[in-house]
Amino acid sequence: MSTEPSAKVALLGPGSWGTALGLLLCRNGHRVRLWGHEAAQVEALRRDSENTQFLPGFPFPSTMMATDSLDEALEDATDCLVVVPSHAFRQVVTQLASRLPPEMGVAWATKGLEPATGQLLHTVAQGVLDNRPLAVVSGPSFATEVAKGLPTAVSVASNDGRFATRTARLLHGGRFRAYTSEDMIGVEICGAAKNVLAIATGIADGLGFGANTRAALITRGLAELIRIGTALGGRPETFTGLAGIGDLVLTCTDNQSRNRRLGLALASGQSVDEAKAVIGQEVEGVITAQAIHRLSERLGIEMPIASQVYRVLCEQVSPQEATRALLEREPKPEFG
Ligand SMILES: NC(=O)c1ccc[n+]([C@@H]2O[C@H](COP(=O)([O-])OP(=O)(O)OC[C@H]3O[C@@H](n4cnc5c(N)ncnc54)[C@H](O)[C@@H]3O)[C@@H](O)[C@H]2O)c1
Ligand SMILES: O=P(O)(O)OC[C@H](O)CO
């Protein structure tokens, strides 16, 4: 069990991940108000006392209540955790700005960059929320496995050591381990870029390539992640940690990943829109591929795998042609 005294958590975003984290917080003895922006979705959560749309099979405890009123979610809240998709992040933290006490920290478990600007989410949050403690939760963590209580470990990176510890302690307990970190940049770029690389491994597996290909994509993908992450100021050790190689391996190798499944679907001939419709949930790598592409061009960072994923998603290049382009690259030193 968590050693933190019982908290009242406003949890914003009742998708699969927000719901799983809500269940975890309740198991740790905390009270959760789960806010959603769609009245009909919230009505269904209240009626069913379960998230039948995004995380079926896990009834809500009496300490988890859904609401479509942000004011109600924040009433008496001691902590605030944002779990909306990256495209909604600025909008949601902007709504928080005028509602939160000045000293209250904000944590999020969103993985992605701001689509329009390519900014890391802590940069967005700092711009909107001014000087308050911020933290990002990231790492290898499928919602269903957390809801089932299967052992999981994540990283909590913050600009404030005490807030990192507070947020980690809220989540830590039973079968969930939360490690603290000071590297928000590294943790955030890992969480965003791994989704793009998972699309690449999904494509490769969907085209019938083997284990050699998958291992090569993960390893060379990690090299791309380290290049862009260190250029942005991330710390080298983060890339070998839970948010880095941990989440990259998880997402690239298991079909619970929506990003990997999108890659598999593209390889089978489905369009991006068809694949997204079948998956029926957020596939962050689709918009992140565009943001990463623009960012790597601007910074002059070579990211051949991410770049081919971008071409497949946005320039109607076929998975086969993208594969050819990668394999035809000139030999080069592995490091440097
Ligand atoms: N599902 C996982 O296993 C998992 C694990 C770790 C991190 N994440 C990350 O968590 C974030 C949320 O993903 P998810 O898996 O819960 O997605 P999901 O598709 O299961 O649900 C998305 C949720 O976001 C809400 N939403 C959509 N647009 C919104 C808006 N404009 N304002 C407010 N809410 C809005 C939807 O109503 C829905 O409740 C993503 O960044 C994802 O990468 C997910
Ligand atoms: O289903 P995905 O591909 O969005 O991945 C979910 C989590 O980010 C895995 O850690």
From TrEMBL:
Residues given in the record as NAD(+) binding sites: G13, P14, G15, S16, W17, G18, A143, R258
Pathway: Membrane lipid metabolism; glycerophospholipid metabolism
GO BP terms in the entry: carbohydrate metabolic process; glycerol-3-phosphate biosynthetic process; glycerol-3-phosphate catabolic process; glycerophospholipid biosynthetic process
EC number: 1.1.1.94
Principal location listed in the UniProt entry: cytoplasm
Residues bound to sn-glycerol 3-phosphate: K111, G139, S141, K194, D247, S257, R258, N259
Binding residues annotated for substrate, in chain numbering: K111, R258, N259
GO cellular component: cytosol
Localization, UniProt: Cytoplasm
Catalytic reaction equation(s): sn-glycerol 3-phosphate + NADP(+) = dihydroxyacetone phosphate + NADPH + H(+); sn-glycerol 3-phosphate + NAD(+) = dihydroxyacetone phosphate + NADH + H(+)
Binding site for NADPH: S16, W17, H37, K111, A143, R258, E284
Location of the Glycerol-3-phosphate dehydrogenase NAD-dependent C-terminal domain: 183-323
Keywords carried by this UniProt record: Cytoplasm, Lipid biosynthesis, Lipid metabolism, NAD, NADP, Nucleotide-binding, Oxidoreductase, Phospholipid biosynthesis, Phospholipid metabolism
Domain Glycerol-3-phosphate dehydrogenase NAD-dependent N-terminal residues, every copy: 8-163
Pfam (any one): NAD_Gly3P_dh_C
PROSITE patterns the UniProt entry points to: NAD_G3PDH
A Gene Ontology molecular function term of the record: glycerol-3-phosphate dehydrogenase [NAD(P)+] activity
Residues at the catalytic site: K194 (proton acceptor)
Family membership noted in the UniProt record: Belongs to the NAD-dependent glycerol-3-phosphate dehydrogenase family.
Stated role: Catalyzes the reduction of the glycolytic intermediate dihydroxyacetone phosphate (DHAP) to sn-glycerol 3-phosphate (G3P), the key precursor for phospholipid synthesis.
Matching HAMAP family: NAD_Glyc3P_dehydrog (MF_00394)
Alphabetized PANTHER family for the sequence: GLYCEROL-3-PHOSPHATE DEHYDROGENASE (PTHR11728), GLYCEROL-3-PHOSPHATE DEHYDROGENASE [NAD(+)] 2, CHLOROPLASTIC (PTHR11728:SF1)
Name this protein carries in UniProt: Glycerol-3-phosphate dehydrogenase [NAD(P)+]
Taxonomic lineage: Bacteria, Pseudomonadati, Pseudomonadota, Gammaproteobacteria, Chromatiales
Gene assigned in the entry: gpsA
